[in-house]
Amino acid sequence: xxxxxxxxxxxxxxxxxxxxxxxxxxxxxxxxxxxxxxxxxxxxxxxxxxxxxxxxxxxxxxxxxxxxxxxxxxxxxxxxxxxxxxxxxxxxxxxxxxxxxxxxxxxxxxxxxxxxxxxxxxxxxxxxxxxxxxxxxxxxxxxxxxxxxxxxxxxxxxxxxxxxxxxxxxxxxxxxxxxxxxxxxxxxxxxxxxxxxxxxxxxxxxxxxxxxxxxxxxxxxxxxxxxxxxxxxxxxxxxxxxxxxxxxxxxxxxxxxxxxxxxxxxxxxxxxxxxxxxxxxxxxxxxxxxxxxxxxxxxxxxxxxxxxxxxxxxxxxxxxxxxxxxxxxxxxxxxxxxxxxxxxxxxxxxxxxxxxxxxxxxxxxxxxxxxxxxxxxxxxxxxxxxxxxxxxxxxxxxxxxxxxxxxxxxxxx
Length: 413
Hints:
Largest sheet: 2 strands, antiparallel
Mean pLDDT: 85
Helix content: over 70%
Radius of gyration: 21 Å
Oligomer: single chain
Number of strands: 2
Order of helices and strands: HHHEEHHHHHHHHHHHHHHHH
C-alpha cells in the first residue's frame, strides 16, 4: 500500500503522464529491491555493511584525537556518569559533530585528489546507466550524492549543467535531496551508536537506495521529452583541483568546518524557533481546552499518520514515526535524528526503527531547496530560473524517494 501511495502521489503531480517511461520505473524499483535484498538477506553482504558501519564508528574516535587537542581542557560528563576531561570520552554534540565532519571531508578530499572517488562514482553510474537507461549526467549526479554533499555532487557534472534538460536537472536535484553526504551519514551513525542503536547499515542502505529511487520518482513527475547530450555515455572529469595532498587536506578540513558550523547554526536557530512556535501553539490550545497541549509534534503526528501507516510502520510506532517525518521535511533531518536517537520521540520496534531511519535519511527539506538553487545557480548562472521553478518539485521527489526506499526495506525484513 505504501508503494502504491508513493507512486500514486508522484503520478498525480506528473506534468506529462503519457510520456512516463515505465521501463525506467520498473528497473529502478527492481534495483532498489536488489540492494535491499543484498544488504538484509545475504549474510556476507550484511556482514560487510556491519563491518563498514563499525568502521564508520571508529572515525569518531579518530576525529576525537584532533578535537582533544582543541577541547581537551573542557570538563564534560563521562560515559560512567562522572565528570572529567573531554579527552576521557565525554560527548558534547558541537565538539564531536564538528570534528567528525571535518575528518570525513578531509578524507573525501584526499580520495578526490587521487581520483579514487571519481572512479568509484563512475563505475556505479555506468551500472545505473546500463540498467535504468538514464543519461550519464543524471546517473553521475545521483550516485555522487551518496558520497558527497548536495552541491558538491553537482560540481562533478559541472560541464553538463548548462546543457542539461529540465528533466535531467530535476533528477539531479532530487537525487541530492534524497541522499545524504558521507560526513553527515557518519555523524548520524555515531549518534545512533551513542544511544545503543545500530543505524550505520540502515543509513548506508538508505543512501544507496536513494539514487535509483530519486530517478524513478523524478522521471514520473517530469518525464524526459527533450534530447539529452549525455544519453548512453558516462564521462567524468578525474582531474584534481588540489595541488597536492596537503592542499587537499587543508581544503577538505576548511570545507568541513563550514558545513559543521552551518549545521550547528541551523540547529540552534531551528530548535529555538520551534520552542517559540510550540509555546504559541500551546497557549492557543489552552484557550479552547486547558488540558490540550497543541504542539508542532502533535500536528506532525496527525498530518503524516496516513503516510507512516501505509509505509508499514507497526501500530505502536505510527505516531512517533509520523512526527519524525514531519520534523525532517518541515525543519531538517538533524532535528529528526536527534529526537530519534535521544528518545525524545521514541520508536519501540525494530521495523519502525528501520523504516524511519531510511525515510529521514536525506536532505529533503525546505532550507535545502534554497541551498540547491543558490549552489547550483553559482555553477550554472543561466539555469537559475529553471532551478527556481523546479525547487519544490525536487523537494517532493526527494521526499517520496526516501519514503519509497523505506517502504521497500520494511517489506523485506
